[in-house]
Amino acid sequence: MRLLAAVLALIVIAVTPAHAAPRIVGGVVVDDADEAPWMVALTTSSGYQFCGGALVGPGLVATAAHCVYGRKPSSITVVGGRLDLLTDGGSTSVVKHYQIAEGYSTPSRGKDIALLTLVQPMPYQVLPLAATSAVYAARNVGVVYGWGRQAEGDTNKSPLLHKASIPIMADAQCSGAYARYDATAMFCAGYPEGGVDACIDDSGGPFVVDGRLAGIVSWGIGCARPNTPGVYTRVRTYLS
């Protein structure tokens, strides 16, 4: 698996945009290690988790561009095989280098995807990519995973991996919610009444449809607000 050469460049830029920080709200704890063996956490060298990601190859992690934007690869540690981040199980690896989509600037302008190459490959099952664009049909239900906070006003987050099932919205609804919505680069998912969403520190985590990677947690306004769906990177535009 690879990022299409025509849309990628290896770049290191300035800072992560302040508005780009989603998480899981209204979800449940993942208690079966076999459910998401490809799920990884992105942490600092001191162990602070700031984003999620998914193994798409033994030594390759797909995540959001804004998660690594401006960071040195060697400052990012990837943790796999661990549902509870307070435990010592699983595997860890420093990032060797990464690529982000050429032209990326902020999540709301699209291209919010990065591919990390690990120093040490991980011995876990990888997450296959969505096979066709049919996965983005309105009302298809996907599952989003992350270690982020469970409410918009939370100051703390759980060390336990959470998940939530969320339906994909029609592009017309997404455009109505966000003026900058770009159906080529992104899709949105949520309930009209809100209540279930990704949130702070869930950024970069996978949105999985029928056991395949369809999206990456990218951006939104607040967390789980009514008529304000979460926005995800449309993975098939960038990965093959």
What structural keywords apply?
mainly beta, seven-stranded antiparallel sheet, six-stranded antiparallel beta barrel, globular
Strand order of the largest sheet: 2-10-9-12-13-14-11
- Report the average pLDDT across residues: 88
Shape: globular
Within the CATH hierarchy, at the fold level, what is the topology of the largest domain? Thrombin, subunit H
Task: Give me the secondary-structure topology.
Elements: E1 8-9, E2 28-29, E3 39-43, E4 49-57, E5 60-63, H1 65-68, E6 77-80, E7 91-101, E8 114-118, E9 141-146, E10 162-167, H2 171-177, E11 186-189, E12 206-209, E13 212-219, E14 230-234
Antiparallel strand pairs: 1-7, 2-10, 3-4, 3-6, 4-5, 5-8, 6-7, 7-8, 9-10, 9-12, 11-14, 12-13, 13-14
Family: Belongs to the peptidase S1 family.
Domain Peptidase S1: 24-240
Protein name: Trypsin
What does this structure look like?
By secondary structure, this protein is mainly β. It folds into two domains: 5-17 and 37-118, Trypsin-like serine proteases (Thrombin, subunit H); 133-237, Thrombin, subunit H, CATH 2.40.10. It has helices at 65-68, 171-177; strands spanning 8-9, 28-29, 39-43, 49-57, 60-63, 77-80, 91-101, 114-118, 141-146, 162-167, 186-189, 206-209, 212-219, 230-234. The strands form two sheets. Strands 2-10-9-12-13-14-11 form a seven-stranded antiparallel beta sheet, with no helix packed on it. Strands 3-4-5-8-7-6 form a six-stranded antiparallel barrel. A hairpin with a 5-residue loop joins strand 3 and strand 4. The radius of gyration is 16 Å and the shape is globular. The model is unreliable at 1-23 (pLDDT under 50).
